[in-house]
């Protein structure tokens, strides 16, 4: 504790400390003028800043209904649809609506994500916001998850790397991030009641790994505990999670705050390490005060949390933020366009339909309501009123220029219902076109907070539109807008498919540039696209029963599951096409043998062998040796996005840290590197890894669990224990240790029993269970 | 030019204008005063005489078949029913305009006819500037009544004197020519949504294509095709602010039979594509906020108090 903090805390009464560790109204921390402690303002948004003037500026009038307004905000309420003052004085002030997490991650571009973090910080400062409540990086375990659109990936490496980039961007500009939701809130179904049952290995290797990576690389000033329970404990009240793992094992030194109304027992949450309770709840304050007075919560715990909050306020440098700077919304719009452009994934492009060339496709039919009113974001507390919106149709007309003849038909009726007249119009313009571009999306508002999707379909009327249009149009291109993966029974009906997820306010320009080849697609999937819901990894036990949700697929999350089961998904993890081609060559490794703490440098040359500039996401996967622990066939460990001019070759270097080779042993409760041959696989996506090279890992000096009921084979694997047992048996039998050793090694594969039974019953050694057990000990 | 409080955005704004001349609504002061950054104002005419002062930058006025260049600090008076068009010559140019209601005049006190520029070299310039200053300042005091009306008449008297003291610019208008073009403009204003050809307009005017085009340009400052495009651009603008309407429908609705023509016309008369125009409107919150006082032109209103400050600070060039 800093000396000055110690002094401050010593001047605070218990009442004041309790108030300090609780929010002030909905969005602020509690200030104390007489102690010179200012108030910090925080607000929602994982991809845009939400500022509600009523709730933040006038905090006396906050009510639960305000909060519910936030949670239930629909992407339909984007404000711009409304006119005049409604747009201005709507629920939140306009801000840049960047690509949502599910889209953003497809850029695989940490530099761009860093820039987005900076832009978010500048908008926060312009609005007087000190902490932005993001990013959220819960793994996208099931595509049904309502908040999947905010989260980055089914893989913890992508999630952690991109979150770190965003956090660094924000915090380098002086605005605090809140890494959330910690942890295992991977679906919205009864999200505050459900208990996620996750085995220890899966928890550490998958669900916590992204948080660990982000914290190691960016040290977020705050972490937000989640709404759910995890293995029986409310996460906001879990000492294991918030203190043992987060602080003691990972060394996190920032502040933990609750999700809004996520605390059920305030004294327990403080004891667990949940420093700040948000928002202000009078009952929580009374409970905590009573617990302190009764000695159930020691003052040392209270003081430590106060110190963490004071450290946070120091980091925010609130005294230097007396004026709100202006910010460049136009530049941010350009950035939102650029990120959208680099995030959109080209999933299919038969017969090189794209980019549209006026020589082949002069008459272009633009179809679907999304061309005029794009679905740019999901629904929930992240929903942002966009500062400005690029409409795909408007941008297409601008970008296409004079060479193309553009026609538009909405194709569906009001509220996305099928409508014969609208459909006929769409079919008519498609018939008279050279190519039809159909904009389709998932249901608006169904994705979102506190509710999951019911299925993986796009809207029925939109599916019908693809079907009817593709029957008459010479070529059909589909532009898809969706929260998370969808089933694509219509895929065969289109020649090309652009997957945008929810790509934010710049999506219109980005789509237009990609369609006409003013930009080259470079996004790649960060989730697997399944053929159907029923084959998805979490399908069998989703959404749980009797309030318990078993993560029964274990470590086989996302592509790890499809790979392990040798299933062919619709589109594999990491996949994405370009208008050019890339070739991978000359994989080389810095080491042939790795000591336990060695990092490995992987280098590979990538060539753009096509005729236009493009960007490629180079992906490095690791396969583990066969050992005690089971593994997924491949595991993403590193990636790098490189820009290559036509014909250009670049050597890309990527580093795998010693930690990247580790596995979490659930019995040992520690990270180990298993000795053996690891394969480094490099390529364009998880199912196309043409380059492979091996490295020998010596492994960590861990000792696998061993007792007298372990098999002889297990015993022999533990050299020191084996030597001690051999010595004991030699002593008992009078035979030479070398003879004993050789005989035991020879017979071991045949003896299925534990070695106590094997030695006593089959080999006639007269030794007690206890003596054997004692001989296993060393160190 | 069109005052901002005279034309309200209405549901029927797509309806063709029924009259070629502008409807101007006056309040109890018997005049409209407004200040704005003006990009351009298409050719039009009205009963009310109009008096403008250039607050910033410069404009080209087409009045009575002549082009007049005005700079910051200059005044211009345009009498009743004279066709005039305005176009800024430098970006962000601004002016303040007085429009005088017919009720201010009677048989013995007719408004000055013709048009008149009053530049700093004019003998009455300083006097007029003082009158304009006084008038604006008084207006801001919201003291409606005879004192206020007196100020207005003082200003009219100043204009009258200024036009007496200098040989009045000779009218080159042949009334008949003027009338022909007014009718043609009226036709375009009513039928811009349809496919209008210049030949058709020439026929209606009983003139040859060549003669008609030349006369149109001479009277209005624009070629008939330019004028038609300007009207369509002006009509498309409020529609672009209505985000419910797809851009292709807007092009059709205002008579551009192809989106490419709309894009070209917007680039020429608006300096931006329709899509850029739509976005610039929605990304300018101050502007969006003043939606109520905006109509179909791009003109950005300036508070009268600010206009008075600008008038006092503006140095004649």
Number of helical elements of chain B: 11
Number of strands of chain B: 10
Please identify, by name, the CATH architecture of the largest domain in chain A.
Answer: Alpha-Beta Barrel
Return the average pLDDT of chain B rounded to an integer: 81
Count of the domains of chain A: 4
Kindly report the CATH topology of the largest domain in chain B. Answer: Jelly Rolls
Assign an overall shape of chain B: globular
**Uncertain regions of chain A: pLDDT < 50 for 5+ in a row?**
78-90
CATH class assignment of the largest domain in chain B: Mainly Beta
- Kindly name the structural category of chain B: alpha+beta
Q: Sheet with the most strands of chain A? A: 6 strands, mixed
Provide the CATH topology of the largest domain in chain A: TIM Barrel
The main sheet of chain A orders its strands as: 11-16-15-14-12-13
Q: What is the beta-strand fraction of chain B?
A: 15-25%
Indicate the percent of residues in helices of chain B: 40-55%
Mass-distribution shape of chain A: globular
Largest sheet of chain B: 6 strands, antiparallel
């Amino acid at each position: 504790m800093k000396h000055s903090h110690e002094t401050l805390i010593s001047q605070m009464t218990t009442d004041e400390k309790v108030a300090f560790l609780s929010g002030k109204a909905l969005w602020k921390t509690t200030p104390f003028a007489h102690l010179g402690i200012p108030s910090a303002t925080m607000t929602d948004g994982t991809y845009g800043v939400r500022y509600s003037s009523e709730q933040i500026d006038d905090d006396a009038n906050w009510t639960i209904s305000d909060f519910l307004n936030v949670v239930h905000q629909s992407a339909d309420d984007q404000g711009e649809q409304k006119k005049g003052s409604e747009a201005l004085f709507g629920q939140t002030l306009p801000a840049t609506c960047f690509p949502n997490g599910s889209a953003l991650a497809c850029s695989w571009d940490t530099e761009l994500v860093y820039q987005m973090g900076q832009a978010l910080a500048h908008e926060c400062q312009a609005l007087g916001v000190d902490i932005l409540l993001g990013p959220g990086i819960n793994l996208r375990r099931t595509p049904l998850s309502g908040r999947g659109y905010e989260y980055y990936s089914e893989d913890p490496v992508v999630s952690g790397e991109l979150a770190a980039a965003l956090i660094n961007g924000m915090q380098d500009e002086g605005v605090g991030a809140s890494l959330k939701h910690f942890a295992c809130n991977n679906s919205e179904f009864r999200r505050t009641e459900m208990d996620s049952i996750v085995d220890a290995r899966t928890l550490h290797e998958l669900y916590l790994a992204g948080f660990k990576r982000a914290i190691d690389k960016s040290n977020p000033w705050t972490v937000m505990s989640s709404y759910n329970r995890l293995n029986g404990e409310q996460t906001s009240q879990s000492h294991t999670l918030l203190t043992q793992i987060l602080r003691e094992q990972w060394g996190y030194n920032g502040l933990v705050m609750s999700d809004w109304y996520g605390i059920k027992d305030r004294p327990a949450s403080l004891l667990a390490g949940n420093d700040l309770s948000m928002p202000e709840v009078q009952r929580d304050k009374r409970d905590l005060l009573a617990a302190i007075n009764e000695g159930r919560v020691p003052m040392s715990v209270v003081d430590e949390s106060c110190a963490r909050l004071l450290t946070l306020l120091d980091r925010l440098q609130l005294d230097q933020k007396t004026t709100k700077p202006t910010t460049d919304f136009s530049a941010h719009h350009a950035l939102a366009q650029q990120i959208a452009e680099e995030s959109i994934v080209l999933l299919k492009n038969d017969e090189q339909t794209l980019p549209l060339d006026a020589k082949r496709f002069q008459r272009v039919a633009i179809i679907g309501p999304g061309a005029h009113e794009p679905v740019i974001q999901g629904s929930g507390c992240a929903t942002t009123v966009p500062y400005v919106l690029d409409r795909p149709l408007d941008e297409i007309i601008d970008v296409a220029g004079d060479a193309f003849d553009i026609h538009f038909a909405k194709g569906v009726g009001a509220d996305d219902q099928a409508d014969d007249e609208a459909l006929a119009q769409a079919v008519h313009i498609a018939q008279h076109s050279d190519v039809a571009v159909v904009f389709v999306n998932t249901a608006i508002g169904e994705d979102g907070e506190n509710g999951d999707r019911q299925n993986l379909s796009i809207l029925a009327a939109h599916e019908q539109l693809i079907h009817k249009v593709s029957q008459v149009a010479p070529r059909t291109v589909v532009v898809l807008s969706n929260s998370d993966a969808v089933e694509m029974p219509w895929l065969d009906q289109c020649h090309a498919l652009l997957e945008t997820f929810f790509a934010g306010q710049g999506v219109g320009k980005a789509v237009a540039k990609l369609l006409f080849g003013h930009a080259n697609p470079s996004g790649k999937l960060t989730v697997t696209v399944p053929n159907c819901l029923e084959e998805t990894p979490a399908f069998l036990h989703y959404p749980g029963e009797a309030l318990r949700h078993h993560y029964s697929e274990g470590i086989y999350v996302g592509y790890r599951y499809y790979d392990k089961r040798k299933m062919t998904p619709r589109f594999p993890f990491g996949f994405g096409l370009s208008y050019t081609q890339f070739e991978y060559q000359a994989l080389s490794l810095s080491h042939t043998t790795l000591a336990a703490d060695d990092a490995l440098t992987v280098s590979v040359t990538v060539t753009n062998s096509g005729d236009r500039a493009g960007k490629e996401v180079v992906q490095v996967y690791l396969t583990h040796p066969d050992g005690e622990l089971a593994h997924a066939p491949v595991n993403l460990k590193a990636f790098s996005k490189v820009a290559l001019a036509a014909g250009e070759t670049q050597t890309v270097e990527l580093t795998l840290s010693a930690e990247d080779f580790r596995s979490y042993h659930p019995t040992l409760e520690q990270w180990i590197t298993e000795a053996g041959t690891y394969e480094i696989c490099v390529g364009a996506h998880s199912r196309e890894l043409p380059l492979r090279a091996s490295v020998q890992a010596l492994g960590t000096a861990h000792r696998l669990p061993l007792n007298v009921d372990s098999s002889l084979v297990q015993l022999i694997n533990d050299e020191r224990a084996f030597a001690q047992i051999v010595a004991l048996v030699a002593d008992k039998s009078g035979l030479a240790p070398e003879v004993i050793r050789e005989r035991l090694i020879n017979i071991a594969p045949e003896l299925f029993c534990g070695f106590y039974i094997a030695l006593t019953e089959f080999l006639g050694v007269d030794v007690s269970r206890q003596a054997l057990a004692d001989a296993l000990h060393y160190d | 030019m069109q005052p901002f409080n005279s034309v309200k955005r209405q549901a029927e704004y797509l309806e063709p204008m029924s009259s070629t001349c502008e409807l101007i609504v006056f309040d109890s002061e018997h005049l409209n005063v407004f200040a704005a950054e003006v990009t351009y104002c298409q050719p039009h005419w009205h009963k009310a005489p109009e008096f403008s002062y250039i607050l910033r930058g410069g404009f080209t006025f087409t009045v009575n078949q002549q082009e007049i260049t005005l700079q910051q600090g200059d005044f211009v008076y345009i009498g009743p029913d004279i066709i005039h068009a305005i176009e800024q010559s430098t970006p962000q140019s601004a002016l303040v305009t007085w429009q005088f209601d017919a009720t201010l005049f009677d048989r013995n006190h007719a408004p000055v006819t013709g048009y008149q520029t009053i530049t700093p070299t004019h003998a009455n310039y300083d006097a007029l500037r003082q009158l304009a200053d006084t008038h604006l300042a008084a207006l801001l005091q919201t003291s409606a009544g005879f004192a206020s009306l007196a100020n207005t008449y003082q200003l009219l008297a100043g204009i009258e004197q200024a036009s007496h003291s200098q040989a009045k610019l000779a009218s080159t208008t042949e009334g008949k020519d003027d009338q022909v073009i007014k009718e043609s403009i009226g036709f375009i204003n009513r039928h811009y949504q349809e496919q209008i050809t210049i030949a058709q307009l020439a026929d209606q005017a009983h003139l040859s294509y060549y003669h008609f085009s030349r006369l149109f340009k001479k009277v209005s400052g624009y070629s008939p095709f330019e004028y038609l495009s300007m009207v369509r651009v002006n009509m498309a603008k409020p529609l672009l602010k209505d985000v419910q309407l797809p851009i292709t429908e807007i092009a059709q609705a205002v008579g551009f039979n192809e989106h490419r023509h709309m894009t070209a016309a917007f680039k020429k008369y608006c300096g931006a594509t329709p899509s850029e125009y739509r976005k610039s409107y929605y990304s300018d919150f101050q502007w969006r906020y003043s939606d109520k006082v905006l109509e179909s032109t791009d003109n950005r209103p300036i508070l009268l108090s600010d206009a008075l400050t600008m008038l006092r600070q503006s140095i004649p060039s």
